UniProtKB/TrEMBL annotation:
The protein's name in its UniProt record: NADPH:quinone oxidoreductase family protein
Origin species: Alteromonas arenosi
Molecular-function annotations in GO: oxidoreductase activity
EC class: oxidoreductase
Listed Pfam families: ADH_N, ADH_zinc_N
Start and end residues of each Enoyl reductase (ER) domain: 10-322
């Protein structure tokens, strides 16, 4: 099989597209022939050695795929060869095949194309978990989403609307804001043209944000940290801007709000029943048309470097997807 291999931590350009041996399932495992793989910002951090998880090298990046089961290992029940599935693999997704435990696959409804299914899991599942379990967002509350045109930002806009929030989208260009608006955002803020703190204050009639879904870090995080409502929840999703901010804890004390970390990968391990229920709800919402996946571009697997560079450069509206050449 063909795969993208990270031999050592380093620049994205060092990734190698190469031939590897075909995979065989072990006990309790299945082999999935990959039809599409989602590309995520953490993938780029991972290959550079900048992510929380640092796998042994060499490894194949990619944690979300969609495809069909091609082989079943001993003890696997309730699945069959040829079945369409979504697979959560943590590693191994940038390839033509992946081996996963049967506990890490979900049946894929026929209505959902492989390209969209592969891009549904990480972005939407992160946003869903963040807003549901971590923020416990309520109808009528105000939700600020930074990086609102990216994959997980758009997911937060859609899910926030489904959960009854008023959604304020924060982006760097008019084009990105238009994408956020198309996906349900109520209020738009271009932080390159407006003071973000003042704009949030104005948009919330001086109250501040009940929930902030913060993906960018740096100055954007600092502005949001000064724009929270009493009993607000500032969700720390990631640092797409490249700077991990330091937080003055006196702000939380004086303004009476919580800073809440969101790490979806750990959530799937610590709360597997909640994760399974979340995914069932997400897939139901998708079939009902309440959420959707916006695929910016679908590239051949051999172009994974190009896809990652576009994601890391924050040039994507929605999600990037890879398909076998």
């Amino acid at each position: 099989m063909k795969a993208i291999v990270c031999n050592e931590f380093g620049p994205v350009d060092d990734l190698e597209y190469k031939e590897l041996s075909a995979l065989e399932p072990g006990k309790g495992q299945v082999v999935v022939d990959i039809a599409a793989a989602g590309v995520n910002f953490p993938d780029g951090l991972l290959v550079q050695g900048l992510y929380q998880m640092k796998p042994e090298r060499p490894f194949i990046p990619g944690n979300e795929v969609a495809g069909t089961i091609s082989a079943i290992g001993e003890g696997v029940e309730g699945w069959h060869v040829g079945q369409r599935v979504i697979a959560l693999c943590m590693l191994g997704g940038y390839a033509e095949q992946v081996v996963v435990p049967q506990t890490h696959i979900l049946p894929l409804p026929e209505q959902i194309p492989f390209e969209e299914a592969a891009a549904l899991v990480t972005a939407h599942a992160t946003a869903h978990h963040a807003l549901k379990q971590r923020a416990n967002i309520q109808p009528g509350e105000t939700l600020v989403v930074t990086g609102a045109a990216g994959g997980t930002g758009l997911a937060a806009v859609q899910i926030g609307k489904e959960l009854g929030a008023t959604v304020i989208a924060v982006c760097s260009t008019a084009e990105k804001l238009a994408t956020a608006k198309e996906n349900g955002a109520d209020i738009l803020i271009n932080y390159t043209e407006e003071n973000l703190k003042d704009a949030i204050k104005q948009a919330t009639n001086g109250k501040g944000a009940d929930v902030v879904y913060e993906c960018v870090g740096g100055d954007t995080f600092h502005a949001c940290s000064r724009s929270m409502a009493w009993n607000g929840r500032l969700l720390v999703i990631g640092f797409a801007g490249g700077e991990i901010p330091e937080f003055p804890v006196n702000l939380s004390l004086v303004k009476g709000y919580s800073v809440v970390g969101v790490f979806w990968g750990s959530f799937t391990q610590h709360q597997p029943k909640d994760f399974a229920a979340n995914m069932q709800e997400l897939l139901t919402w998708y079939v009902q048309g309440k959420v959707k996946v916006v695929v910016d571009e679908c590239l051949p697997l051999s172009k994974a470097k190009q896809a990652l560079e576009k994601v890391m450069g924050r040039e994507v509206r929605g999600k990037m997807v890879l398909k076998p050449d």
